[in-house]
Amino acid sequence: MQGKRIDKEKLRVALNRFVEKQNHIVYGYGKNGIFITHKIYRDNPEDLSLFNPYFGLNGATFFYRVFGKDIKVVMLLRPCEIRALIELVKLNQIEPETITMISIDCPGTISQKNAKADLPDDFIEIKKAFDKDDSGLRWACKFCREKRGVVGDAGIRVQEDGGLWIFPYTDKGSDFLNLIDGEIIEYTAKFVISESIKTEPFVTDMDKFYNDFSKCILCKNCRDMCPVCYCVDCLFNGDEYLPKGDAFINKMLRTGTQNLPYGKEIFHMIRMYHVSQTCVGCGACEEACPQDIPLTKYFKGISERLQNLFSYMSGRDIKETIPYLTFKEDELKDAED
Questions:
Q1: CA atoms of 232 and 65, how far apart (whole Å)
Q2: Domain positions in the chain
Q3: Which of 96, 103, 162, 191 suits a disulfide with 124, CB 3.0-4.6 Å?
């Protein structure tokens, strides 16, 4: 594997060269008061943070329907965010030539909802903090399918001594590496993060499902903050499934006594089906839930179980077609579940 040894200063110099051009921007993480959050840079990214220990949302949600070919964006994000962007490209929601996606090794995150601003933005220090006490580590991160910066156009990896390397995976990735000072050399050392361990398939039953979702107030925050739930005309905005006003009264007259909110179970079941092929398991849905429903284990668990039937992993490769959009006569012949 060949790449370039980098540090934050070398990277900032390269990004400065990029944003000097018209309609070029950088998207990543930066300090926002006491926390590190997503940030757009139109000029010098002097406060850029490569590693963000706080999770509030998946950064792909800001980039639905980006079709302008005269705009260029370099994105430096977690693997789960890059994977979501890759799925949006496959679904024709982003012009692929507009963005250069750089995934970064992720040590894990804590929820921003109840977080204290006392975590560093250094990979090794973040990992040491989580190794010492992982009680605050998000469920999605504990069972993450891909923490390595191995997806997208390029990846920033952390070697065991804390050194940073960047590797190109596509022509766009190689073009970005050309902006970084230094020669491309062979890498032979070990990385801090290795391939994730395969976990047991998700199993539940309807009694458990109804119990977990009994607190749902149908705010639909989970839908709105899902990075791969992009539909402009969502069927749940109409009166067919979630009626309001006269439509609601007429529905109740036809169906009889009902627990409210009406339709919450079908809402989540249809959503699980809808994103099962593209869900990246980031847990943004659970972060957005005011009722603290364990959404991640359902959406991540069910989607990964289905994707495994097709030997598919959402966001792994931009050339890998989404299973529901393709047909192979013998694709399920040897499937096991």
A1: 10
A2: 2-186, 206-325
A3: 162
